[in-house]
Amino acid sequence: MSDSRAAGLTAEQMDEAMAKLSSPDRLDSPFGELELFDGVPTPDTVRSIYDALDLMRGIEVFLNAVPGASLVAFREGLRSIGIDSSRVIGVTDPRGNSGALFLTPNTETTYGTTMLDLEAWGPTVIEAPPESLCVVDDFWFRYVTDMGIAGPDRGQGGKYLFLPPGYDGDVPDGYNVCRTPTFTNFVVLRALGGVPAMKQTRIYPLGEADDPTENEWVNMVELAFNTIHSNDFSFYEEIDALVQEEPIEALDPERRGQLAAIGIVKGQSFAPDDRMRGILEQAAPIAAAMARAISYSPRDPEAVLYGTWKNAFVGGSYEFLREGARLLDARTQFHYLATVITPAMAHAQVGAGSAYAYTIHDSAGEVLDGGRSYKLRFDPDPPAKNFWAVDIYDTQTRSLLQVESTKWPALTGNSEELKKNPDGSFDLYFGPTAPEGMESNWVETRSGKSWFPIVRLYGPLEPWFDQSWRLNEFEPMG
C-alpha cells in the first residue's frame, strides 16, 4: 500500500524558499544603505529605518488629511474677519474677487458661508431660502446634506435641523434632520435670486426656534484674508487642532493610526521632539510637492478629459470610491484645489448643475507662463444652457490670480462686451499685455508666475458629455 502523503520540499526547493524569505546583509534604499546581521538590522540601520518610517507617515498624513486641514484654515480665515459664530454669515456681495485667498472660487456667483458650532449651540436650525443651492459638509470635509434645489426641500425652502455627535435628546417634527459626526460643520449658501434671496437664510439654536435672534452678515469682498491650509510644519498643528476638538469616532481608525504615528492623538499634547519635528518639517513640503503633482499632472487615466484638459472629480463619486476602493490620489487632487463637496458636483446632469475642466499646460505640453501670451478659441455653440466662464488662478495659492488690471480675472460667455467671431466662436487671450482691439476678450497674467484656468459650464448640454464639442488647447502667441 503506497503512502499518498506529500513528501515535503526537496533540498533545492528549501534553498529557494530561504532565498525568498531572507533579507540580504546589505541593501541599497532611497534612505541610504541598510545593513543587517543575519536578518537583524544594525543599530544605525534601525535609526535610519525609523526616520524613514516617520517621514513616510508624515507625508501620508499630509496627503490624507488635506480635507481636514483645509477647513481648519478656512474657519481661521473667517474668524480673522469677524465671522466667529454661527450667527454671523459671510457673503460675497455682489460677487467674489481676487482680494482674499480662497481655493479656486469663481467670479460669477454670490456665495454665503459660515461654520456651525454644534458644541456651543447644540441642535442647530438652518432655514434654507427657496431656489437655492446650499451645502453642509462636516469638519473632515465629508458631505452631510444639500439644502435647496438639490436637497429634500427641492428648492421650496425648508428647515434643516443639525444634531451634534452623540445627541440622544428629543427630535421635534417639521425638520429635515441631519446627524453629523463632527461638532463643527461648513455651510455654503447660494441663492439664485442673489444677495436679497440669500439673506432669507436663518441660522439659530433649536432653543430659539420660537423667536430666533437675527443673523449678522459680513461682506467679504473688500477684505484681504487667508482661508488656505499651510504647506509647512504648521499643517500638522492645524490637523491637531481638529483632532483635539472632535470626537475620536469622527475619523476612521486607519487615518487615526497615521496621525498617532506622528504624535497627533486626541487628549494628548502634540509636542514632537527635535528629531520628529525635523522630520515633519521635511515631510510637509515634500508632501505638498506630491499634492501638486497629483493635482496638476494626475496619472489616473480617468483624470484626463482629452488633450491637456483635466477632470477634477475622478471616479464620479463624492466619496472618491471606485469598486469599493478609496481613490486616495483623487481625494487629494480635489481637496488640494477646491472647496465644497456634494454629490451634485460629482454627477453633473444635462442642463443642470455645472461641469468643470482645467489644465496647467499649453498645446505644446509646456506649463502656462504668465510672461507669455496665449489664445484659446471657444468653438461655436458652447454647450452651456446658462453660460460659460473661464477663471484663472495662481498655481502657488490656487486662488484667483492677482493682477493690476482687474479683481475679476475671468471671461464669461454672458458678457455683453465679449467679442464674437462671425462663425459664432470666441477668441480669448491671456498674457501680460492685451492684443490691440481685443481688450474685452483678454485676461492679464503676471510675468514670473505660472497660472491655470478652470472652465465652468453652467447647465452643461449633451455635446459636453458626449464630447462632440471639445475645448481647444491654449496656443502660445509668438
Would you mind describing this structure in some detail?
β2 (32-37) and β3 form a beta hairpin. The protein has helices at 11-21, 43-80, 118-121, 194-198, 234-245, 253-261, 274-296, 328-337, 343-346, 462-465, and strands spanning 26-29, 32-37, 40-41, 88-91, 112-117, 124-128, 133-138, 143-148, 158-163, 176-179, 184-189, 202-205, 216-219, 304-306, 309-310, 321-322, 325-326, 354-358, 374-378, 384-394, 410-412, 426-431, 442-444, 451-460, 475-476. It has 478 residues and is α+β, with helices and mostly antiparallel strands. The protein is globular, with a radius of gyration of 26 Å. The termini are far apart. The protein contains ten helices and 25 strands. The longest helix has 38 residues, at 43-80. The chain has four domains: 9-39, no CATH class; 42-79 and 229-296, VPA0735-like domain (VPA0735-like fold, Orthogonal Bundle); 82-219, Sandwich (Immunoglobulin-like), CATH 2.60.40.1610; 348-476, Jelly Rolls, CATH 2.60.120. It has a six-stranded mixed β-sheet. A four-stranded mixed β-sheet has the order 10-9-6-12, with no helix packed on it. α2 (43-80) packs across α5 and α2 (43-80) packs across α7.
CATH architecture of the largest domain: Sandwich
How much of the polypeptide forms β-strand, as a percent range? 15-25%
- Outline the biggest β-sheet: 6 strands, mixed
CATH fold description of the largest domain: Immunoglobulin-like
Helical residues, percent = 25-40%
- How would you name the CATH homologous superfamily of the largest domain? Domain of unknown function DUF1254
The number of domains is: 4
Average the pLDDT over all residues and give the rounded result: 96
For the record, what CATH class of the largest domain applies? Mainly Beta
Poorly predicted ranges: none
Query: What is the total tally of β strands?
Result: 25
Q: What integer value in Å does the Rg equal?
A: 26 Å
Separate helix tally: 10
Order of adjacent strands in the largest pleated sheet: 8-7-11-5-4-13
